Amino acid sequence: MSVIVTETEKEDALETARAVLASEVEGIEALAAALDDGFRQAVAMLAAVSGRVVVTGMGKSGHIGRKIAATLASTGTPALFVHPAEASHGDLGMILPNDAVLALSNSGETPELADLVGHSRRFGLPLIAITREPGSALAQQADVVLLLPKVPEACPMGLAPTTSTTMQLALGDALAVALLTRRGFTAADFRQFHPGGKLGARLKRVRELMHDGAALPLVAPGTRMSDALLVMTEKRFGCLGVIDDGGKLIGVITDGDLRRAMGPDLLVRPAGEIMTASPRSIGPDALAAEALHVMTDAARPITALFVVPANAGGAPIGILHIHDLLRAGVA
User: Fold this and answer.
1) Using an 8 Å Cβ cutoff, are 241 and 249 in contact?
2) In which order are the strands placed within the sheet that holds 318-321?
3) Which of 30, 47, 128, 156 ranks highest by number of CB atoms within 10 Å?
4) Per-residue model confidence as pLDDT tens digits over 255-292
5) What is the pTM of this model?
């Protein structure tokens, strides 16, 4: 079914959208300006927790809380979301003595939070509140209060949580990133929690994708090109590595090198005369995404990359082809 929308209606919709986004941007800017030592205290408190961060909230705050818990968990801070209403019916048992509680409530007077907040006080669990009201029941009970600025909701009636939930979400992201920075959380650590999908593929190590051992297409610099081409054809990487007597990679021969050296004497010339010296290489512990970046360098794109550890005296231990990255979902 087609719907006819007038130009005026289109423009009204765009104006509304821009006004909403502008309102939410103002909220984020006000939040950034309002951050104080309480944020540092919250980060320090969460970093010291030996258990999990239990995130809770009701309604829209609960939906935001789920996302914050997921972000914390994926960036090295063990976390889970506990619904406050379910907590009152047995899920308080999910909260352990070494945990901390991060409670979200715009008003700070959400009645469903009462039992969970009481539980945290009874067992001395650190309690961090994200709320707009410093005098609210939640703020009065919390060890640390992260206050949301009192800015208008983007909703024209000022009723639907819009700007306030955007600020909650942004503040949760700020906590997660501050914690991962404090912990020295790396891309390798991130991969442990994201093994699947495109992201997981790009965070694979080169050593997981490379070919090694007898698969390497290697020749000595004195090898005649008639023999070198047989090795290049057999190994099927479209290139050759040239190594000296000590096994150090000193050059590479690609299809481009062959075209540039094409002539009647090509097959009798030594590989050392045809190679490109000082070839690019990559370490085995580099990320697959780094290898892709090296291969697709706009100035000198290549299709294969030799893998050379820093402590191997320049000797290659593997080779990585662009097709390996494609099959792994990296490229």
Assistant:
1) yes
2) 281-282, 304-307, 318-321
3) 128
4) 999 999 999 999 999 999 999 999 999 999 998 889 99
5) 0.62
